[in-house]
């Protein structure tokens, strides 16, 4: 199975209010977006690298997957679900996470932002 080319509206999802601030989240954004800021404890695997790095995806049941707004992560969720993983798309992505007042940090722990 390959990663779908378009956003997938009918994938399992989770609201950011249901995800702990320090939960493990899979972030599929590009490197520059990650560098600007991400959720604490997130794992970074850019969408295009996901098939080759499948063994690095956390196996937590109900793992939240995020991008900036939810489109790329919906594609990742469709792909990972097809691989037998129990994952959910983070509604609103990192933009929604930041707007909800959830923490966004850089790799060195300093405050970050969603670009």
Task: Summarize it.
The protein has 115 residues and is α/β, with parallel strands linked by helices. The chain has helices at residues 31-36, 71-82, 93-99, and strands spanning 13-14, 25-27, 43-44, 63-66, 87-90. It has a domain at 12-55 and 64-81: 3-Layer(aba) Sandwich (Oxidized Rhodanese, domain 1).
Please tell me about this protein's structure.
The protein is globular, with a radius of gyration of 13 Å. The chain has a five-stranded parallel sheet. The protein has a domain at 12-55 and 64-81: Oxidized Rhodanese, domain 1 (3-Layer(aba) Sandwich). With 115 residues, it is an alpha/beta fold. Helix 1 (31-36) links the parallel strand 2 (25-27) and strand 3 (43-44). Helices cover 22% and strands 13% of the residues. The mean pLDDT is 95. It has helices spanning 31-36, 71-82, 93-99; strands at 13-14, 25-27, 43-44, 63-66, 87-90. It contains three helices and five strands. Residues 96-115 are annotated as: Disordered. This is Rhodanese domain-containing protein. Residues 19-106 form the Rhodanese domain. It comes from Arsenicicoccus piscis.
């Amino acid at each position: 199975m390959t990663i779908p080319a378009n956003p997938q509206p009918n994938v399992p999802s989770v609201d950011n209010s249901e995800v702990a601030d320090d939960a493990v989240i899979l972030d599929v954004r590009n490197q520059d977006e990650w560098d600007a800021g991400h959720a604490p404890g997130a794992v970074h695997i850019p969408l295009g690298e996901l098939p080759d790095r499948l063994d690095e995806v956390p196996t937590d049941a109900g793992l939240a997957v995020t991008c900036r707004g939810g489109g790329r992560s919906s594609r990742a969720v469709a792909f990972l679900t097809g691989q037998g993983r129990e994952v959910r798309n983070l509604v609103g992505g990192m933009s929604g996470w930041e707007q909800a007042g959830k923490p966004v940090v850089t790799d060195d722990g300093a405050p970050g932002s969603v670009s």
